[in-house]
Amino acid sequence: MGSQPDAEAGASADEDDYMNMTFEDTASSATTKNETLTQRKKRLAREAEIKGRPKSKAELAQEERKKREEALNTTTLDTSNRGFKMMAALGYKPGTALGAAPRTTTADGSGGGKDDRLLEPIGLEMRESRSGIGADAEKKRKFREEVEARQEADKKRKVEAGEFRERQQKEREEKKMEGQVWAAMKVCERLDEEDDLEQSVDGKPDPAQKPRRSKPLKAVNVLWRGLVKQRAINERDRRMRYDLYQSLSRRPDYIDPDEEKEDQMAMGKKTELEEVDVDLDEEDEELNEFETLEVSEKLSKLVEYLRERWHYCFWCKCRYPDDKMEGCPGTTEEDHD
């Protein structure tokens, strides 16, 4: 009878313990069993090299960063740590702040201060750089100054571009008005010559009036005197350049006293030159004062003089029979658009 329990215990010991069985990786075990001695030595050497190789600074920093992020992502008030248990023993409750609460009323009966106590510990913020605490504020200040300076430069550039366009537009308008001033001067000169021809009798000039070719410069109206003077200067310069290449005897306006008039007519020479008798070096205060006026003011004076003297509209390009000038829309260029 006593041997029966012993036999049962031996039988149960011989049976497999399926609860504590471990299953090996058949693929790795098969590979390990089938590897040769040389392959086994290489594998062990490779594993030993991996275990014995020290980690680089980058790998250590990465592991440290990973551990730190895992710790920061967890709650700061873990109920399982000893610090929380000590605080709980002193009366701390989760979701409340430490220290005494501010009084709701003061001694004079007024309301108390705002409860700005922290409900959680101050979070940990790691600094990647090695700069000081105030370095970030200094960098932000410099960055803000650079942005403001860049914005100011862009604004100034836009203003300068706008001023440049306005200046270009103004220069174009002034250049256009200068051309209109010269055109109005030519119209005044032409109409004045027509009046001189009308004053002649039977094609003969009026004895009381000097011929145009001997008319002094100051006798010309100041409104178109600059045109006459500029023409005389251009003619003088042309003749001076011509004299550099041509001798006096070959000039077409040279008159030989021994040459007969028939020969002179055959050669197309004139006995007199139709030119304005001017002294270009003489000071002309009246002309200088007129030249100092603005281009728009010069044009306005010329247009007004044409209308008053000859009933001529510079913008219509026609002469009216009377001073009413019916049909003319106005005195400015904008009125004729």
From TrEMBL:
Basic and acidic residues biased stretches: 45-71, 113-178
Start and end residues of each stretch annotated as Disordered: 1-79, 95-179, 193-215, 252-289
Molecular functions per Gene Ontology: nucleic acid binding
Compositionally biased spans, kind Acidic residues: 274-289
All residue ranges annotated as the G-patch domain in the record: 79-138
Composition-biased stretches (Low complexity): 1-12
Database matches in InterPro entries: DUF4187, G_patch_dom, GPATCH11
Extent of Polar residues compositional bias: 23-37
GO cellular component entries: kinetochore
Identification of the protein by name: G-patch domain-containing protein
Species annotation: Fonsecaea monophora
